[in-house]
Write a structure and sequence with these properties.
about 70% helix; globular
Amino acid sequence: MQKSNKSIAGYHLLMLLSAVDNEFAPEEGILIQEYLAEEFPFKINLDNELEVIATLPQDNWKDHFEFHARCFKDDSTEDERANFLDFAKRLIKADDQVNAIEHTYYTLLKNLWK
């Protein structure tokens, strides 16, 4: 897999965090749009990235998540990672419920970045 820059890696992380509970709540979509607006103030085509995520077999999600967590870490500061973790927490809480798998992935992200 080709290394991603911080912004693309963050997109993959958020999309997977929003999908691991097998539901994509509208509130999560709004937050991901907020992330995109902040990270990509210019027009960018993410169709290829979305296709990679959409066609990824569910049993490969964790490895893909870990890979992009490492890409994000490589290209970010400690403050950027802390801000992203806060944003990721908002995302998994957006539908007013955090299930075990969302918590597991969020904890995995925190542990990979320590």
